[in-house]
Specification:
Length: 349
């Protein structure tokens, strides 16, 4: 590939990117992906070349490596692993994305990426935006938590709200939005350290370690009035346990089902789903990509909570593109608290 058409300062610069070699079974193994080095791609008409500063690791990255159809098509063999991130435009044929623009997009696991000028996929950010908090709070993380708690579950003061993967990126924000609305909030997570963070730092009313607790018994103790709202990030046995404890008129917001993303066979359905009938409850899935035009308005709401000292977020930073497979696997082994970020450009702040 020729580097003609790139600014002189980029002459000879190579791009490192991680491509999919074979579809993983379970966790991503070293042979499933390959780090390749190539000359910088040249942006075509209406496109821009971005130098990636930060990547945000989402559970959806793992779903895109499998064959099934999701809300985006699977990553093809030989293609760069799809992932969201933020970088600065270094060469451009796009009026909306001039050189120097900070852009939130889907650059993938790469040091440089060509971005299409598609408003649904690429958002120019204000020059002084903080890329880290845009990924870990004010972008899709906060919007997903908001959509599930406010739009889908209609959480009200006095509700008992249960959130799974509660110490993760989305879960920890969902818990705090519910607390801000006056709910009684119980988090489910996978270590005692996470439980302590949820109750001592974030002010949750109770936290349950799903790896050590008898879940139905622990839910009964933590939710004596049963569960009005369940924000589900994990599916599987935890969903089954919480459905068994629903209150009348409960709302179950289906955000994700991470316990199933590595599965090689379709997992069994929750045996307790008939409680939806007796509890006159409803269960509703949602995708935050449907509310992209509202991200800015939601970010303002979250920023007000942060300013009032009523919302905090946490990040777990991995250094360098090579760490991407390890960082992705950490979500499935539960080795993360808060949002997983990768600093791709060592100079990115
Ligand atoms: N609907 C949407 O628009 C949307 C948008 C973004 C994300 N999501 C979904 O939101 C969920 C959370 O994503 P995130 O990016 O915020 O990840 P995250 O919560 O930061 O990390 C994932 C967490 O899931 C838990 N987990 C992993 N495997 C599990 C298992 N087998 N059983 C129980 N818990 C397990 C682990 O926590 P513990 O070990 O502490 O349990 C892990 O820390 C995912 O399901 C994702 O697909 C949905």
């Amino acid at each position: 590939m020729s580097t003609e058409g790139l600014p002189a300062g980029l002459a000879g610069v190579m791009n490192r990117k991680i491509v999919l070699r074979q579809r993983p079974v379970g966790l991503v193994q070293p042979d499933d992906v390959e780090l390749v080095s190539e000359p910088l791609p040249v942006p075509g008409p209406g496109e821009a070349l971005v130098k990636v500063g930060w990547l945000g690791i989402d559970a959806s990255v793992r779903t895109w490596l499998s064959k099934g159809e999701g809300y985006l098509p699977p990553v093809g063999i030989g293609e760069v692993v799809r992932c969201s991130g933020i970088g600065r435009v270094v060469a451009s044929n796009s009026e909306r994305l001039p050189v120097g623009t900070l852009a939130y997009s889907l650059p993938g696991w790469a040091e440089y990426a060509v971005l299409a000028d598609d408003p649904m996929l690429t958002t120019p950010l204000p020059d002084d935006a903080d890329p880290r908090s845009m990924i870990s709070l004010y972008g899709s993380v906060g919007a997903t938590a908001w959509m599930g708690i406010v739009d889908v579950a209609n959480v009200e003061e006095g509700d008992t709200v249960v959130v799974s993967a509660a110490a993760g990126a989305t879960g920890s924000i969902a818990c705090q939005i519910a607390k801000n609305l006056g709910a009684r909030v119980v988090g489910i997570c996978g270590t005692d350290e996470k439980c302590r963070w949820l109750t001592e730092d974030l002010g949750l009313d109770a936290a349950i370690n799903h790896r050590t607790a008898d879940l139905p018994a622990a839910l009964k103790e933590a939710c004596p009035q049963r569960v009005d709202v369940y924000f589900d990030n994990v599916g599987g046995p935890i969903l089954e346990a919480v459905l068994g404890r629903l209150a009348r008129g409960a709302r179950v917001a289906l955000c994700g089902a991470i316990s199933t993303y590595n599965a090689t066979e379709r997992p069994p359905g929750p045996a307790t789903y008939t409680n939806l009938i007796t509890a006159r409850a409803r269960m509703e899935g949602f995708l935050s990509i449907d509310i992209v035009p509202r991200y800015g308005e939601i970010a303002m709401e979250l920023a007000a909570m942060v300013a009032a000292g009523k919302l905090q977020h946490r990040e777990q930073v991995y250094e360098g593109l090579d760490a991407a497979p390890t960082a992705l696997n950490a979500m499935f082994t539960g080795d993360n608290i808060g949002k997983i970020l990768i600093r791709v450009d060592p100079d990115a702040t």
